[in-house]
Structures are given as C-alpha cells and as structure tokens.
Amino acid sequence: MRIIVAVRCYNEIKNIDRFMRCYDFADHIVVSDGGSIDGSQDKLKTYPKVHLLNFDHYEIVHGFKWNPDAPHMNFVLEYAKTLEPDWLILDDMDDVPNIILQKNARGILESVLEPQVNAFRLYMWGEDQYFPYMNRDFDMDYTSLWAWRPRDIGIWADPSRRHGTILGITDEPYKLNIPYCLLHRSWHPDTIEQKMERYNKVGVPMNNPLDFAGELKPLPEWAKSE
User: Fold this and answer.
1) Structurally, how many domains does the chain consist of?
2) What are the beta bridge partners of residue 122?
3) Cα–Cα nearest to 207, from 179, 186, 176, 184
4) Model confidence over 101-130: pLDDT tens digits?
5) Exposure string (b/e) for 77-93, b if CB count within 10 Å is 16 or more?
C-alpha cells in the first residue's frame, strides 16, 4: 500500500520537523513551496521522503505575498497523483495526526473499504490548549476530510473561492473519531496579530479566535502528537 501526503508550504520552518515526524508513516511527502524566505526549502531538502515543488503563482497584495489557495492545492495534488498513491492525504504544515493515529494509520487505511476517510480535528491555541466550542465538546459529527483513494474519487479545490474549498468529497466517508484526531495549530498567541493582518489585507477575513471560539481547555492527554 502506497500512502502519499500532499502539503503546501510558505515560511513554515517552525512546523516542518514536527510535520515530518508525525507523517513518517507515509511513503512520500509532496511539498509545494510558495516562495518561502525563512529557510524552509533548505530544511525540506534534508528529508529523503520529500518531493519538493516550487509554486510561483503568487500575488503581492498590500505588501503581503499570497499564494492563491485553490490553485496551490490543485498544483500539489496533481503532482502527488503522479506517484500513484493508493491513499492520498492533504494536510497543512500546522496540522498533524496525534500519536495514536500516527501509530495506526497504515493499518486503518489497509482495512477501510470506503474510498474516503474523515478525521476529528481539534482547533488549538498555542501548544497545549484547544477550543471545545469549535467541536461542540465532541457532541457534533465534526469529522473532516483527511485521506482518500484517488483511483476511486476525484477531490480538488474550487478555484472560484478565495480561501480553498474542497469539492468532490463523498457524503458517506469512513469516520475516525476520538481518540484518533488531527491537531490543528493554526492559531498561536504569539503570532495571531500578524496572521490576522496578513489574511485581512489579502482579502481573506480573519478574526481573533478568542473573540468567537469560546473558552479554552487544556489539551486532553490522548490528543498529543509526540
């Protein structure tokens, strides 16, 4: 069984080592870099599993570089498909599977009959807290796309949307729920103001999660990535 991970990169040097460790169960990791200037490309070249691509279709908006989400997603996915994966995973550099999912990923994907696997995603604040409201304390059926068989279903990003929207997903995926999960570290107290400024300036509205995502809780013990 051949597992390929596809991921985009732009100035992600702080996340690369963790991402590579957490996805070490994959056979190859296709990374499309959108013009990083923080040393990300040099770091990525040290990993033998990485296929490094350059995505240079960026825009400069109000002084900020922006890689349009959907074209960038489709670019890395198209290359990943040429490696003939049995399973293809699309993720972000700041999003990784927790330990139990890392250890069991290959066995899960070998046994699943459905063409798509969804996973539960925790929305984190920093390294050790998360927003339960974003998952309604696990009461909602809140899994989202993680892996799929590209020979069975076609998944791509909608180029008409500014902030990538995935199309082609099935309504009846195999659903992984807790304790399996993905840990999305997209919000950090040290960088949230800079991230909000960049996103809002390029036309992708973003508010501070402390204003809308509810109260914080400590990350559960089962939701550790390392």
Assistant:
1) 1
2) 183
3) 186
4) 999 999 999 999 999 999 999 999 999 999
5) bebbbeeebebbbbbbb
pLDDT (0 to 100) of residue 162: 65
Q: How far apart are CA 34 and CA 57, in angstroms?
A: 8
Beta bridge mates, 88: 4, 148
**Cα–Cα distance measured from residue 181 to residue 22, given in angstroms and rounded to the nearest whole number:** 12
Query: Which residues pair with residue 89 across a beta bridge?
Result: 5, 147
| Mean pLDDT confidence for 67-91 | 95
- Domain of residue 58 covers 3-218
pTM over 0.90: yes
Q: Would residue 224 count as lying in a domain?
A: no
**What CATH code is carried by the domain that includes residue 96?**
3.90.550
56-65, 72-81, 209-218, range with the lowest pLDDT: 56-65
Q: How many CB atoms lie within 10 A of CB 35?
A: 16
| Nearest of 91, 86, 80, 73 to residue 181 by alpha carbon | 91
List pLDDT tens digits, range 156-183: 999 887 676 899 999 999 999 899 999 9
Lookup: tokens for 68: 């349009």
Burial of 185 (0-12, 13-18, 19+ CB in 10 A): buried
